[in-house]
Amino acid sequence: MRTRLAAPRITITTIPTPKADMLDDFLIRAGLAALGTAMAAGPLGCFVVWRRMAYFGDATSHAAILGVALALGQGIAVFPGVLGTALAMALAVHALSGRGLAHDTVLGVLSHGALATGIVAVALTGGVRVNLELYLFGDVLTVTRSDLAWIWGGAALVAGVLAWRWRRLLTATLSPDLAHASGIAPRREALVLTLLLAAVVAVAIKVVGALLITALLVIPAAAARGAARTPEAMAVLAGGAAALSALGGLWVAQWLDTPVGPSIVCVAVTLFAGSLPLRLLAGTRG
Amino acid sequence: MNALLSATGLEFGPRAAPVLRDVSISVAPGEIVTLVGPNGSGKSTLLRLLIGALAPRRGKVHRARGLRIGYVPQSLVLDASLPITVRRFLDLPHRVSDADAAAALEQSGATGLEGRQMAALSGGQFQRVLLARAVLNRPQILILDEPTQGLDQPGQAAFYRRIATLRRDLGCAVLMVSHELHVVMSATDRVICLNGHVCCEGTPEVVTAAPAWRELFGTGTGGQLALYRHEHDHAHEAGGAAHHHHHHSHAEG
Fold this sequence. Notes:
The complex is a heterodimer of chains A (286) and B (253).
Chain A: H1 2-14, H2 26-50, H3 54-74, H4 78-98, H5 104-126, H6 133-136, H7 145-164, H8 166-174, H9 176-181, H10 186-204, H11 213-225, H12 231-256, H13 260-285
Helix pairs in contact in A: 2-7, 2-10, 2-11, 2-12, 3-4, 3-5, 3-10, 3-11, 4-10, 7-10, 8-10, 11-12, 11-13, 12-13
Chain B: E1 5-12, E2 20-27, E3 32-36, H1 43-51, E4 58-63, E5 69-72, H2 86-90, H3 98-107, H4 123-135, E6 141-145, H5 153-170, E7 173-177, H6 181-184, E8 190-194, E9 198-202, H7 204-209, H8 211-217, H9 223-233
Parallel strand pairs in B: 3-7, 3-8, 5-6, 6-7
Antiparallel strand pairs in B: 1-2, 1-4, 8-9
Helix pairs in contact in B: 3-4
């Protein structure tokens, strides 16, 4: 794993092929990875906001750290490990919510429990040489071609499923009873969103890291709220805001030499702050 | 005639204190059935069992194959974080044409509200938009849970006249919960009086003459029901009513 992470820098310095592939540039790869993540996180983030699943997102993304530890311990790629534990956590929370247990306290226990266990497990399996910050805050500059394939594959899957089930998901979100009366099972739609959330966690961990994934879900959606009059518009705007944050954050990070993940989130927060006047206007307009 | 929607022997809630027990109900095509009963008598629970939002502990709900239900909930709280126009709300869960949407809004007395935000509607407008959404997709049965909550009396009367018109135009059955019996009576084919179980059932005239009915509304459930009794019975016993406590009567079941 450690050698895989180092690989891209070697590629750009030692193989200056005359007809260089665009993807050989680590900045291009980073930009593409951030864009792919944004396009999945923005629209899904709307559901996270509408359904108040932010804490749920935290629990799922923190579980990813445990996945990192397992993957390092087993010597397998990080993505499947992260996806696996995120899925397991998401399903566990989904099952608990069906019994009316997924309130703040239980989610708090699961979320921080997963984070702490994951950090301890990484320390146990990887020793001191594993840079945990990589997974807590992301390191999009070390994204490889195969990472990009995972990210874009996952993002396309999330966007595709959202588009396919859009009306059902939206009806179930508006009112479970209205959904039932129309022959839609709200629990099934909630499960779909749960699974998509796990997929986004796996996609985003390398870009913004486990600690800030929820930020990438919630903040662009919140920024889009003020300017949107329909759910569809909000989803599209959230995707746009997330993409702008991703590329803007990458640029800021290069410019100020700051970590990319937190820089992306800072740009998103700035966009949100800029959207507040719009929101107030929308409020007075009624 | 085959029932559109029926249930037999429904039981729901904790075994020790069931909300509903041994409730059987059936609605035939085109008929208007009104559920009445005191607060906490299980009316909304029964409707939610019938649409499949709740699962009964015992008993069975049977819906005709491919039954199209138009459901108007008692209330719908929209999360402020979710922006949605009336027009887009009508598109859930099936996209409808602009012409159909406009027609449904007109039928429901909500003409021209398409561009408005759902969150910005008044209580009455909101209820009429919920009704408009329910009548789209040609429902075979409209299920309305206290649809006139928050409307003033003229508003209620207008709402029930609209329901009667809709029934005539769409040919659909209507099953509704209502407290405003004095308003709804004329537009009802059958009344089912519920209090954890079916106390009595029949045409408005038969039901209001039944002992179980008198028993139930002699308990001083207050408000509209007492008012109804007061207006039509001329039995001025609202004050003394508190004395004979309600006990469940199965006689008319």
